[in-house]
Amino acid sequence: MTSGTESAGQGDDGGSAGGTGTAEAGGTGEAHAAEESRSMPLHEAAELAERIAGTVEDLPDVAGLTAGPHVRVVTYRVGMPVTGVAVRDDEVEVGVVVRVGTPVTGVADAVRTAVTPLAGGRPVHVLIGDIDDGDDG
Q1: CB count, 10 Å around CB of 131?
Q2: Residue-wise pLDDT tens for the chain (137 aa)?
C-alpha cells in the first residue's frame, strides 16, 4: 500500500473545519463522538453508518474503508466502531482506500453519488486515505 492522504471532493477540506468532531479540530474523536450523538441516537447513527459502509464497499474502485490518518472517520457504537464512515449531525464523511490506477476524483464522485441518497440531506465528504497497489506482501 502507498502511504499518504489526499482529500477529494466537492467543498471538502478534509473535515477539519466547522467543529466536525475530528481529532485535528482539537480533541479526541471519542469526546467529540459523545457530543455529536446528542441529536441523533447512537444506534441510529451506527445503523446508517453500516448501510453506508456496505454501499461503499460494493463500489468496484473502492478497495476498502479507512478511518484515515488520525482515526477520525468512525461512527461510535456499543462494541466496535464503524470504521471508515462518520455519521455526524451536520455531515457524513467516508474514508476510502482506492485501487491503484483509478482516478481518485472519479472514486470520490462515485462514493458521493452512492452515499448522498442515504445521507438524509447531509453533505457527503470523501477522504481518499490510501491507494491499494494490490501487493499484499
Answers
A1: 20
A2: 443 433 443 333 333 333 333 333 333 444 444 444 358 898 999 999 999 999 999 999 999 999 998 889 999 999 999 999 999 999 999 999 999 999 999 999 999 999 999 999 999 999 999 999 887 65
